[in-house]
TrEMBL record:
Molecular-function GO terms, alphabetical: monoatomic cation transmembrane transporter activity
The protein's name in its UniProt record: SLC13 family permease
One Pfam family per UniProt: TrkA_C
Listed GO CC annotations: plasma membrane
Organism (species): Stappia indica
Length: 665
C-alpha cells in the first residue's frame, strides 16, 4: 500500500468509529474527514467544497423543500383521509397505511411522509385497540421501503446516481430504481402486513397522548353550492362523526340556534358551531368544503376594502376626464357652448378599521397596531396555528375578540376556544374570555409570539397544526408532478428541474418563504457534500480498488453473484449502524471497483448499494424514521431487530435475483 492509501484508510477508519460511537453528529464527522483529507493532501484545497455544488446534493435539498410544500398545504392529509378505510380491520388498515406511506415516500422525503402519517397511525392504533408501536414500526419500515423505488425517494439513490455519472455512464433516470425497488418494497410490505407486525414487541408508549387538550368550539361557514349546501344536519353529523366532531349550534342571519333539529337543512352562508379537536376541524373542513368563519370574514372585509378603493379610483378618473373636457372646450373658445358637467363631490375615504378601533384601544396601543399593520402589508409572512392558554392576570380576561379588535390591532384571528368541557351560547367573536381558556390562534409566528407576550398568554408546546388549503395542495402536488415529468422525459437534469420546482413553489407561495431554508435538513446536506470529495479521494488513490480486490479474492472467491450478495449484505449492515447517505458514499467506489475487478456490469453493484443503504431495520439509529418512533412507540434499542432481521432476510432474498434479472452481470 502507498502512503496515500494508508492515510485515506486511517481517516475512513476513524470516521466510521466516530459514526458508530454516536457522540458527534454525522455532519461534524463528515466535515472532519474532509478537512483531514485536505490536510493530508488527498483532496486539493480548491476542490474541498465542490460537493456542495454536486447535483445529488442540490436535488436532495430541493426535494426536501418540495416535500414541505406537500406537508404545509395539507395535500397529504387530504390523501390520507381519502385512501385510508374508516371501519376496516387490522390487516386492511395496516396494508392501507403502510402502502400509502411507501407510495408517498417514492415522491417525497420519506422522513416527511413518516412525520405526516404518525398522527394517523396513532389514531388507527386507538381505534383498533393496538399498542402504538405495532402500528408505528410497520409504518416506519414501509416508508423506508417505498423510498428505494425512485431516484428522489431517498438520498442514497441520488448518491448512487451521482457516482454512476462520475464514472462516465451517466446518472440513473427517475424510474431506473423501480423494477428492483418495487419488487423488494412489495415483498417487504406483504411480509409486514401478513406476519411481521405480530413480531413487534408489545410496549407501553412513552409519548403519544401528550397533546390531549380537549375540544375547541369554532365557527365554520357553509360555502355557496358547496358540498354541505342543502344537506340536513343529520347528514352533516354523519360525516362529522368520522372526524370525531359534532354540531352544537347554527347561525343564520345573525341569529344563533342552539341544539338545532337534525332535519333542518343548512344553506350557503350559514355558520355552523362545531366542537372538535384541531385534527377534527381540519378533517371537517376538508370533507364538507367548509371555511373557517373568521378566515372567511377576513377575506370578505379585504374584498370589500379593495372594492371601495376601486370605486373611489373610478370616480376620480371620471371626474378627471370631465375636467379635461372642460379645459379642452375652454381652449377652443367653446366654453359658452359646452354645458358645464356636474362634478361628483370628492368621496371621503372609508375609515380604516384600525382607525375606528384606535379610539377604543388602550393608551399606547394605536401606534403599535399601525406598526403591525404596516409590517403585515410589507411582509409575506408564514401564517401558522398556535395554542395559547389565558393566564389569570391576562388582559384578555373579560374581553371578547370584538372588543380587542384582534385582526386590526394584532393581525391575528381567534379560530376556536376550549373551555374545560363547558359550552357557551355566545358567538365566537363576542365570547368573553376567561382565565384558563385555551385559544386556537392563527397568524404569523412572530406576531403570535408578540401577542402572547403582550396579552399575558402562555403558548403550549409547539406541534404541527394544519388546516388544509385545497388550492395550495393542488399547486404543491402539481409542481412536484411537473418537476418529475420534466426529469423523466429528459428536458432538464433532475437538479435543475427540482430547483425550478422550488422557485415555482416560492413564487406561488405553496411553501412559506421563511420555511424554504428551514425545510432543508442541513446536517444531511453537509454530510453529503463533505463525503463526496472523500469518496473521490478513495478512487483517486486506488484505495477503492484495493478494498474491492481484497473482498473479491478473500470473501467472494471470484464469484460475481457471491460478490453482489456480499456488497448488499455489507451495505445493509453499515446502514444499520451509520447514516445511510454516508454508507452509500463509502460503498459506491468499492462497488465500482469490485465490478471492474470482476469485469462485470457495475450497474448491478451500484443498485445493490442503493437497496442495501435503504434497508436499515435493525437499530433506531440507522434511519431517521426509526428514531422518530422510538419514544411514541415506547421502544428500546433492542426492539427493532425482531421485525427488522427477518425483514432484511426477505429483502436480500428478493433483491439478489431481481438484480440479476434486471441488471444482468
Amino acid at each position: 500500500m502507498t502512503g496515500d492509501q494508508i492515510a485515506i484508510l486511517a481517516i475512513l477508519a476513524l470516521a466510521m468509529a466516530a459514526f458508530l460511537s454516536g457522540r458527534l453528529r454525522h455532519d461534524m464527522v463528515a466535515m472532519g474527514a474532509l478537512i483531514a483529507c485536505v490536510a493530508a493532501g488527498l483532496v486539493p484545497s480548491e476542490e474541498a467544497f465542490a460537493g456542495f455544488g454536486h447535483p445529488a446534493v442540490i436535488t436532495v435539498a430541493c426535494v426536501l423543500v418540495l416535500s414541505r410544500g406537500l406537508q404545509t398545504s395539507g395535500a397529504v392529509d387530504v390523501l390520507a383521509r381519502t385512501v385510508l378505510p374508516d371501519n376496516a380491520g387490522r390487516t386492511l388498515s395496516l396494508a392501507a397505511l403502510t402502502g400509502l406511506g411507501a407510495a408517498l415516500s417514492g415522491f417525497m422525503n420519506n422522513v416527511g411522509a413518516m412525520a405526516l402519517l404518525m398522527p394517523v397511525a396513532l389514531q388507527l392504533a386507538r381505534r383498533l385497540d393496538m399498542t402504538p408501536g405495532r402500528m408505528l414500526m410497520p409504518l416506519a419500515f414501509g416508508t423506508i421501503l417505498g423510498g428505494m423505488t425512485t431516484l428522489i425517494g431517498t438520498p442514497p439513490n441520488l448518491i448512487v446516481s451521482g457516482f454512476r455519472a462520475s464514472a462516465g455512464s451517466g446518472g440513473f433516470s427517475m424510474f431506473d430504481f423501480a423494477p428492483v425497488g418495487l419488487a423488494v418494497a412489495l415483498a417487504g410490505l406483504a411480509f409486514i402486513v401478513a406476519v411481521g407486525w405480530r413480531l413487534v414487541p408489545i410496549t407501553r408508549a412513552a409519548a403519544g397522548e401528550a397533546f390531549e387538550v380537549g375540544s375547541y368550539l369554532t365557527e365554520v361557514r357553509v360555502g355557496e353550492k358547496g358540498k354541505a349546501d342543502g344537506m340536513s344536519l343529520h347528514e352533516i353529523e354523519a360525516e362529522l362523526d368520522k372526524a370525531d366532531a359534532q354540531v352544537v349550534g347554527l347561525v343564520r342571519g345573525g341569529l344563533r340556534v342552539s341544539a338545532p333539529r337534525g332535519n333542518r337543512r343548512v344553506q350557503g352562508g350559514d355558520v355552523l358551531v362545531l366542537e372538535a379537536d384541531v385534527e377534527g376541524i381540519a378533517e371537517a373542513l376538508s370533507k364538507l368544503d367548509l371555511k373557517l368563519e373568521e378566515q372567511a370574514k377576513a377575506r370578505d372585509e379585504e374584498r370589500e376594502k379593495k372594492e371601495r378603493v376601486r370605486e373611489q379610483a373610478a370616480r376620480r378618473d371620471e371626474d378627471e376626464q370631465r375636467r379635461r373636457e372642460i379645459d379642452e372646450a375652454a381652449s377652443l373658445g367653446d366654453v359658452a357652448l359646452a354645458p358645464e358637467p356636474k362634478l361628483d363631490p370628492e368621496p371621503e375615504p372609508a375609515p380604516q378599521e384600525s382607525e375606528t378601533k384606535k379610539a377604543q384601544a388602550k393608551p399606547g396601543e394605536g401606534g403599535e397596531g399601525e406598526a403591525r399593520e404596516a409590517r403585515r402589508d410589507t411582509e409575506a409572512e408564514e401564517v401558522v396555528l398556535r395554542e395559547l392558554v389565558v393566564r389569570p392576570e391576562s388582559q384578555l380576561v373579560g374581553r371578547s375578540a370584538r372588543d380587542l379588535a384582534l385582526r386590526s390591532r394584532f393581525g391575528v384571528n381567534l379560530l376556536g376556544v376550549s373551555r374545560d368541557g363547558r359550552r357557551s351560547t355566545s358567538r365566537l367573536r363576542t365570547l368573553r374570555l376567561q382565565s384558563g381558556d385555551l385559544l386556537l390562534m392563527q397568524g404569523p409566528a412572530d406576531v403570535l409570539a408578540e401577542f402572547a407576550s403582550e396579552t399575558g398568554c402562555v403558548p403550549l408546546a409547539e406541534r404541527e397544526l394544519r388546516i388544509p388549503d385545497k388550492r395550495k395542495a393542488l399547486l404543491a402536488a402539481g409542481i412536484l408532478g411537473l418537476s418529475i415529468l420534466v426529469t423523466v422525459v429528459g428536458l432538464l437534469p433532475a437538479a435543475v428541474a427540482f430547483a425550478a420546482g422550488v422557485l415555482a413553489s416560492m413564487v406561488l407561495r405553496t411553501v412559506p418563504l421563511r420555511s424554504v431554508y428551514t425545510a432543508v435538513d442541513w446536517p444531511v446536506v453537509v454530510l453529503l457534500a463533505a463525503l463526496i470529495p472523500v469518496a473521490g479521494a478513495m478512487e483517486a488513490t486506488g484505495t477503492a480498488e484495493l478494498i474491492a480486490t481484497f473482498l473479491v479474492g478473500t470473501l467472494a472467491q471470484g464469484h460475481p453473484v457471491a460478490a453482489l450478495a456480499m456488497v448488499l449484505v455489507v451495505t445493509m449492515f453499515l446502514s444499520d449502524v451509520m447514516n445511510n447517505a454516508a454508507t452509500a458514499a463509502v460503498m459506491c467506489p468499492i462497488a465500482i471497483g469490485i465490478a471492474a475487478t470482476l469485469g462485470v456490469n457495475p450497474d448491478a453493484f451500484l443498485m445493490s448499494v442503493a437497496i442495501g443503504a435503504s434497508c436499515a431495520f435493525l437499530t433506531p439509529i440507522g434511519h431517521q424514521n426509526n428514531t422518530l418512533i422510538l419514544g411514541p412507540g415506547g421502544f428500546g434499542f433492542g426492539d427493532y431487530w425482531r421485525l427488522g432481521l427477518p425483514l432484511e432476510l426477505v429483502v436480500a432474498s428478493v433483491a439478489v435475483p431481481m438484480l440479476l434479472l434486471v441488471w444482468p452481470l
